[in-house]
Amino acid sequence: MNAGFSAASVCTMSKKPLGFVLLLVLLIPSLCARAAQVGAAEIGAIGVEATGVGATGMKATEVEDLIRHMDALWRGETSKALLTMTVTTRRYKRTMTIEAWSHGKHRSLVVVRKPKKDRDVATLKVKENIWNYLPKINRVTKVPSSMMAGSWMGSHFTNDDLVKDSTFEDDYQSSITFAGERDGRAVYEVTSIPKADAAVVWGKVTIVFEQSAMTPLHALYYDEEDVLVRTMRFDQPREIDGRLVPMRMQLQPEDKADESTVIVYENIEFDVPLQESFFSLQTLKRRR
Amino acid sequence: MPVNPSVFVFIAWRNIWRYPVRSLLTVFALAGGLVMVILYSVLVEGISRQMVDYATEMSTGHLQLHRRAFVDEQDLYATLPWSYLDAIETRLPDISAAPRLYAAGLASAQASSTGVLMKAVDAVREPMVTSVLSQVRSGTVDLGPASPSEEGLERHNVVVGTQLAKNLKLQVGSELILVTQAADGSIGNGLFRIAAILNPVDTAFDRTGVLMSIEAFQAMMYLQTGFHELAIKTRDTADLEISQAALDATVRRLTAEQPLDALGGAALVRNWREINPTISDMLELSRSMVIVMGFIIVGLASFGMLNTMLMAVHERTHEFGILLAIGMKSRWLMLMVLIESFFLALISALAGAVIGVWSGRYIQRHGIDFSGTMPDGYDWAGMSFEPVMRGHLEPAHVISACLIMTLVAMLSSLFPCWRTVRLKPAEVMR
């Protein structure tokens, strides 16, 4: 082979770089709080502007209330979840049962429970680093920066999606671009634009929240040319520990209509007792 | 008056040796130019042949068969069924075929990790098509199962290039971890042992290639459906187009009998020129460069010829005047000067050809050794060459170089000839 015999193709061979997923539930199960918090934090920063614009229809006090509400939601820092991930591509369809723990937004551990072939394959994320534990060879490998654009566990998520989630607030400037009724529901639309110096994949990310419960409805990911690249949909909200959490998420790449990755929660617990030290390479290797 | 032309030949020959030193200098200049041209063509031909050999013998083979989607985007799933291999081998007994599989992955060793291109080959068929497995720098090429790791986990042998071994600090016997995305979407992974390190041949392979057996590849990638590439060596390289057409027809018949899945695209037969257009273009370019350089070198040397003949004519002006006065026709004078130039050119061509062929053969046999300054050879057009540059003497090139030289030398003597024609006996005899 000749055309493909280059380092560049080695990196891009598996999947198109998809980039960042704001609401990757796997690793940030308190997603509704998290997502809204991103928007709200920025509303704080641009509070005056938001009020001044008036299009949002929000008063300064309301913005502050929203921030406080989101902060309170976010304080529940740890979580434990059991979920199934179904990946459908043109070439294969596979369903995995996954157990996931998280601590804040910087630490998470994911272990595959089913199918048998992938049993005990585990991923640890601490800040911007990802390690995989592979039981077949009993080794922990760190995912290098060159492989960040690669698919995570064969899904439509990339390794980068897991990492960039932590730095979303630093990388993007968010503002409320719409507040009002849409499709019979009162919604907020938060649009995030990357900051000038941020090394990010997306040109624009738009998230629509339902107003009263602040649950996300869908997120749209655009590239630098403002073309929609992929859509994440959220549904089946369920109240857990006083938060309304969507139990099902579907990631849909726009250029492949017949492909998708669907995540369904079987259960989520918040505020479980978990130490930061739980998210270590030792745990990664021990949990098989 | 009947004229015997042999008289002019005789006089012209005698005239050359009136000033032997001057004539010999001219001959040296022309012959030297000719030697330069011959040596240049010997080197270019040698490098060209080496490139073709490397391109075909080392990895590409003469022909290759792929799916369209694999050529375009290295689609992992764009495989040709294994039944095609058997069918091609039975239907075209005159060719040797070697199946290959490719996948991108991440290789980790103790110290570091890097992206690699895994290449699976058939250890029995591959040596019949290319010599990639024989370019061993250290270790022995063995693609079978290796000794288990310290914890008793199963391992396979792999072979890597020199640069990758250097980058990952690998030696023969080192352990290598390969992680990739398998065909079913799972994380394909495996433990491997370095069985051998290969000499650099293909620059890209040397940096990122990992060779393994097809069995090890299938166990890691869960890809049983077929192969990505079939490299083919034909018996006779001269009729490459005929072999290509035969293979193309066979593959077309096969696809009619056993249709391929729609996603991977059609089967594609290409020859090495189509696969490596840069090398093919480069060969064309360097061959035309030989002709251009040849004309420049010979052209410069011909100024010596021009000078000599101008002098020869000038100093004999008086003599020519007398000959003209006693009835010699000026065109015969011109013929005499032309024959004189021709003799000079002929002597130069003979001397140049003899020296050129002799030194060309030396370069062909012994090569020019650069291993003192470049122990690892040199890279050109994405290929690594051995530090000894070997020439190749092509008799046809020597003959055409001699013809070019004679032609240019004769052209440069036209000006002195023209001056003899214009001589006026009354003026020059004064």
Give an overview of the whole structure.
- The complex is a heterodimer of chains A (288) and B (430).
- Chain A has one domain: outer membrane lipoprotein receptor (LolB), chain A.
- Chain A has 7 helices and 13 strands.
- Chain A has helices spanning 7-12, 31-45, 47-53, 60-74, 159-164, 168-171, 281-286; strands at 78-88, 93-103, 107-114, 122-126, 129-134, 139-142, 172-182, 185-194, 204-210, 216-222, 228-240, 243-253, 260-270.
- Chain B folds into 2 domains: 5-56 and 279-428, no CATH class; 76-263, no CATH class.
- In chain B, 53% of the residues lie in helices and 21% in strands.
- Chain B has helices at 5-16, 20-60, 68-73, 82-91, 126-129, 162-167, 203-208, 214-221, 240-257, 272-275, 277-315, 317-325, 330-366, 395-412, 414-421, 425-428; strands spanning 63-67, 80-81, 95-108, 113-121, 136-139, 145-146, 155-161, 175-181, 187-198, 209-213, 226-227, 229-234, 267-271, 368-369, 378-380, 383-385, 388-389.
- In chain B, the strands form 4 sheets. In chain B, strands 3-4-10-7-9-8 form a 6-stranded mixed beta barrel.
- In chain B, helix 4 crosses helix 9 (240-257).
- Chain A binds chain B through residues 1-7, 9-11, 13-15, 87, 89-92, 94, 117-118, 121, 132, 134, 136-139, 141-144, 146-147, 150-151, 153-155, and chain B through 60, 71, 74, 76-77, 100, 102-106, 108, 113-117, 119, 151, 153, 177, 179-187, 189-191, 202, 204-205, 207-209, 228-229, 263, 275-276.
